[in-house]
Design brief:
Rossmann fold; 13 helices
């Protein structure tokens, strides 16, 4: 074959290949799958809050996978949700830089944050980018009291949790003949725990309780021995702890070692491990009878039962971080569906107008007022025989409360 013939053959092959590529490419362009919708998942995945953050990430990803398997966002041609995971490292400064990174990667919204200090920093930075931010836990009420129209908290803040918790405590105490009269408060020194202690000081005296000790500690706390001795010396009827999971577990174990046992109950309000299934199962003698007012799901809903079955199949711990992030992702997806857009302003408006009610939480329909979901409410739990049981409200209860707790044997 001559050089001219070779060039002619090669030219024909190139033309054929090009025509084939054009023929194959045209339908792909015309019927191409829509671009994925990026959602930022910001959690403290390393550091002392890593367990909580990893639990939150698992819950969000489980909901995201279910939404995609069900057809994605139908109003946007079946567009799939795509998680962009970020690690806040239990540091507000890192949370801020991760929000900047997520914005640069094109996320249309961010969810998560867990700890109040992280959420306060992250939501402020998200506002600078005009990014809608859905808070999973972050209980400090300042989060939704700064006039930021991009910030939405799905769960109740500590103002509502405390009001509900104290109302239930009064009901329990009255029904038992008012055995509890004195209280020791143990709290972490961050925005969450300090704010809780301040609120308890405002509310408890008017409800007939005398505060005999208020003890703060850093997060993380390495040794609760001195705190245990202070509580023991105060001899309270009630101990009310408000701290994060690892600290709570170490505190409870130290109390047991030091034979610190209140006369009536350990009645936690947003106790980090008081509604934690692994703590209940792994330390039944220490955890038994501990009460809590906290985030928890409605165990009786069919959706809740399906969720719990999937959690069990994955061999994950059933915790409120999982529950809340699973629910938040569903609320966020519903807002994107209704907005039929990934425009940030339209998405913020859609979240603000949410009435979503298909969640596993014991909530009414979602209704955001100044960024707070007013349909959200806590429940009371108690660890009984190594299992976290719901005791209030009665509509969601899986067991009856034990109050006062039995005397030490």
């Amino acid at each position: 074959m001559t050089r001219v013939q070779k060039k002619s053959v090669m030219g024909r092959r190139s033309l054929i290949a090009g025509a084939g590529a054009a023929t194959l490419g045209a339908p792909l362009i015309a019927g191409a799958a829509p671009a994925p919708i990026k959602i930022g998942l910001l959690q403290p995945l390393t550091g002392f809050l890593a367990y909580d953050g990893q639990q939150g990430r698992k819950g969000a990803l489980l909901a995201l996978e279910e939404i995609n398997a069900a057809g994605g966002i139908k109003s946007l041609g079946g567009a799939k949700l795509q998680a962009v995971v970020a690690d806040a490292q239990a540091s507000p400064a890192t949370a801020i830089s991760e929000v900047d990174r997520l914005a640069g990667e094109g996320v249309v919204a961010i969810q998560g944050g867990f700890a109040s200090d992280l959420v306060l920093a992250a939501t402020q930075q998200a506002a600078r980018h005009g990014l809608p931010y859905m808070v999973d836990v972050g209980v400090v009420d300042q989060i939704v009291q700064r006039g930021l129209n991009n910030v939405f908290r799905f769960a109740p803040g500590f103002g509502k949790v405390t009001a509900e918790g104290l109302a239930n405590l009064v009901a329990l105490n009255d029904a038992a003949g008012k055995p509890a009269k004195t209280v020791a408060i143990v709290h972490e020194n961050g925005a969450f725990g300090s704010g809780m202690a301040k609120l308890l000081h405002e509310k408890l005296p008017g409800l007939g309780f005398k505060i005999v000790a208020t003890i703060g500690h850093p997060t993380p706390e390495r040794d609760f021995t001195n705190i245990a001795l202070q509580v023991k010396q105060a001899k309270p009827d009630l101990i009310i702890p408000s701290n994060y999971k690892n600290d709570y577990i170490l505190m409870a174990l130290t109390f047991a070692q030091q034979h610190v046992r209140p006369k009536v109950a350990i009645y936690s309000i947003l106790g980090g491990a008081a509604s934690n299934a692994p703590f209940a199962a792994q330390h039944p003698r220490v955890s038994n009878d501990i009460m809590d007012c906290n985030h928890y799901y409605d165990p009786n809903k069919p959706l809740s039962k399906a969720f719990a079955a999937k959690v069990a199949a994955n061999k994950w711990d059933l915790t409120y971080e999982l529950m809340l992030n699973y629910s938040v992702m569903r609320v966020l997806a519903d807002a994107i569906e209704r907005a039929a857009s990934t425009d940030k302003a339209k998405l913020i408006a859609a979240i603000a107008a949410s009435t979503y009610s298909d969640t596993i939480m014991p909530y009414g329909p979602t209704k955001f007022v100044n960024g707070q979901n007013t349909g959200a409410a806590p429940v009371n739990t108690q660890i009984q025989k190594g299992v976290v049981e719901v005791i209030f409200p009665k509509a969601f209860a899986s067991a009856k409360p034990v109050f006062p707790i039995p005397a030490a044997g």
